[in-house]
């Protein structure tokens, strides 16, 4: 097997925005969801950052991540309040105007009763010039996509609905496959063997994850590869090493 080509690998970063996440007031539920979701599609989530509601911090993070990865996904900060500044920040990162978008206005005017599309709610219809809308089936206020950056709500149910809307448009790569071998021993006992197996199978990723239950240490060994044959060979070597060490 040759090394992964650019066509095999599609990468992504996730930018979580909000003081409430950093303070612990809100417990993030989106990182794990997105990691699972993208893995199932064949996209590698390669980096996660959490930044406060500070415009310069968001701009810097967006520009750094969009230059480095195939896709960037953001969550948080596109609501109706004064501290929801993600749309402003992303527009600044792309150096484009941020205005009321007629498409977003039409969606939201239809959703709210007459007279209820207030100035605060109109903030959620501000979209950077040139961006496409991301459908929101839950509460209607759309997210948006500009360049390779997808801007979504922080509320998990809304964010997840937006991902379902985005998914058909995403380029996907060759999926990462994985197998797990359980070892009834502490991680340190098999560490040397795993290092050797990793060197023998450079096109795999081998990780070991220790557990302790009632004072007994065990290890889960996870082997990942995009090639079934390569994966099977590495799994066989890991299982053999575990058996030999187990006596």
Can you describe this structure?
The protein is of the alpha/beta class. The protein has two domains: 11-169, MoaB/Mog-like domain (Molybdenum Cofactor Biosythetic Enzyme, Chain A); 177-246, Alpha-Beta Plaits, CATH 3.30.70.60. It has helices at residues 19-23, 30-41, 55-68, 86-94, 102-111, 119-122, 156-166, 187-200, 228-246, and strands spanning 11-17, 44-51, 71-75, 98-100, 126-128, 132-134, 143-146, 149-152, 177-183, 205-213, 216-225. A six-stranded mixed beta sheet has the order 2-1-3-8-7-6, sandwiched between helices. The protein has a three-stranded antiparallel beta sheet with strand order 9-11-10, covered by helices on one side. The chain has a two-stranded antiparallel sheet with strand order 4-5. Helix 3 (55-68) crosses helix 4 (86-94) and helix 8 (187-200) runs antiparallel to helix 9 (228-246). It is elongated and about 75 Å long. The relative contact order is 0.13.
Brief descriptors of the model:
2 domains; Molybdenum Cofactor Biosythetic Enzyme, Chain A; 9 helices; six-stranded mixed β-sheet; Alpha-Beta Plaits; alpha/beta; 11 strands; 40% helix; 26% strand; 247 residues
